[in-house]
Amino acid sequence: MSTLDTLTTVRVGRDAISLADVVAVARHDARIEITPDALAAMAESRAVIDALAADPEPHYGVSTGFGALATTFIDRDRRAQLQLSLVRSHAAGSGPEVEREVVRALALLRLSTLLTGRTGARPVVAETYAAILNAGITPIVHEYGSLGCSGDLAPLSHVALAVIGEGPVRDAAGTPMNARHALAAADITPLQLEEKEGLALINGTDGMLGQLALALADLEVLVSTADVTAAMSVEALLGSDSPFAADLQALRPHPGIAAAAENMRRVLAGSLIVASHQTPECTRVQDAYSLRCAPQVSGAVRDTLTHARTVAERELAAAVDNPVVTIDGRVESNGSFHGAPVAYALDFLAIAVADLASMSERRIDRMLDPARSHGLPPFLAHEVGVDSGLMIAQYTAAGVVSEMKRLAAPATVDSIPSSAMQEDHVSMGWHAARKLRTAVDGLSRVLGIELMTASRALALRAPLEPSPATGAAAATLATGAVPGPDRFLSPDIDEAVDAVRTGTVLRAVEDRIGTLHHA
């Protein structure tokens, strides 16, 4: 199993790396150390490929063309050119540049598969991938080009192109340059590919899996933060905490719901605002669904994350290539490159994330509506009629949620055949991953606006005091929580979104009441 020492070194070998390892290398530039046993396994399987390369009979990926050209035999003196042509022709991406952390994640995951010893690539291939990652060199990969089957071909090909010293990259400082210059500056020798190696570098689900790993890390923070902002809204709207009682949640034993409800109970504990209306004089029987059912939605998102994490961990333990060198030395074609297992999880998460944001937006709107806010001024405005308060902040949240709902439409139900109908069903998993990244960003923005709105509403409930936890959450905002005359609102929104996205809100709450259940 991989080890991670203070986010500085990740050991990558024959066993599965962890989701934390992926994030450490992709996002925090942790250095990679390859285990010796993995290099030995690569050398062992390479001997199998070398034997097949000498065989006059054709073997797919070793002495044949690819895809629809799989029946074409390639003479030995042309096979190096075959691998080079494969990488060059498949590096056919187009569109905007993909984020650095995504490129690093997919390169790391391809390295991890190489080190299983099942691809037949030489040890030097893995060593070169590790060297490029450690040097901070990032191949330029484009938004479009992958159909998620055979794996993320174009994105992985752009990385492979850089490894052989061709194509554009960015160095550790982010400066764009030719790959050969970047490799030379880092004292890295470009690879000269041999039989099977071009195929081994581009045939995998690494792009979609890397983005799933990064999304899981982000959502672990965001979903727990959603419990905090939901509790703040319940408090601000004079709602009740009684629906979150443990015995009520036990009647419907979903673990995610139980965790979310407990988080909300703990965040609301000690609230003088909640206590102020728990009297016989209070005539309200039930809160609106967006308040009362918050744990059911957040909890279902948590359970969806658990499923997606299980899929990701299984994929991290996989050797995804075609053909593969089996443990007993056979070289077999297979369908493991098909992205469906990861793609479904990505689509599922986009649905869950959109619904969580949708409920958050409904609470924002409720706090701004004097007909439903139980005594708060319209739009939380300072001078009603002159000031608009947070009216348009809700518009912003609504616009984001609307976009997230469109992104919740699954990518995986679409399939456009390719490669002269040899690849007649594809997963579109890369597209599922790209839209999930946008959805995760959207969730952070909606939760930030809820944080800002609820913080300002709680301030308007003075002299009643909020709970210690919600007070700590509101205190993370320097300006957004402060009622007053209208001002330029975008900076306040950005401040709140940043507090959510960076985990500042969650840390502030946990510093006051201890660790919450994380998603």
From TrEMBL:
InterPro entries according to UniProt: Aromatic_Lyase, Fumarase/histidase_N, HutH, L-Aspartase-like, Phe/His_NH3-lyase_AS
Q: What catalytic activity does the UniProt entry give for this protein?
A: L-histidine = trans-urocanate + NH4(+)
**The organism sits in which domain of life?**
Bacteria
Enzyme Commission code: 4.3.1.3
One Pfam family linked to the record: Lyase_aromatic
List the pathway annotation.
Answer: Amino-acid degradation; L-histidine degradation into L-glutamate; N-formimidoyl-L-glutamate from L-histidine: step 1/3
Indicate what this protein is called per its UniProt record.
Answer: Histidine ammonia-lyase
From what organism does this protein derive? Demequina mangrovi
